[in-house]
Amino acid sequence: MPDIPLIVLAVVFLGAGGSKLAGVPLIRANFERWGLPDAARLGIGAIEVVLAVLAVLALGDDGLARVVAVAALVVMAGALATHVRAKDEPKEYPPAVLVTVAAILVLATA
């Protein structure tokens, strides 16, 4: 059962998505620096919050857990590509790497 990695996904996505939707100044500044519109921040934030809810609902449901994991990998591919394209410093990568590892663990155990 992939319960622990799903809980990690839920917590990280709720925090990340919530801060995007709330318009935390640092998050707004990052999206501006990356050349992404405000609508992208809100859309990605909404997707992340939905994934957080789905991750909780997936506890005990391996099929839904796999769907959440694949969706998380897609979102993180975009996040990592954005960091690479922006030539961000390595200190910016750990959250995306953590979520990627958690999603892979879900796929490996669901």
From TrEMBL:
It holds the Pfam family DoxX_2. The keyword Membrane applies. Keywords: Membrane, Transmembrane, Transmembrane helix. The chain crosses the membrane at residues 6-27, 39-58, 64-81. One of its GO terms (cellular component) is membrane. It is found in: Membrane. It is a multi-pass membrane protein. This is DoxX family protein. The lineage of its organism: Bacteria, Bacillati, Actinomycetota, Thermoleophilia, Solirubrobacterales.
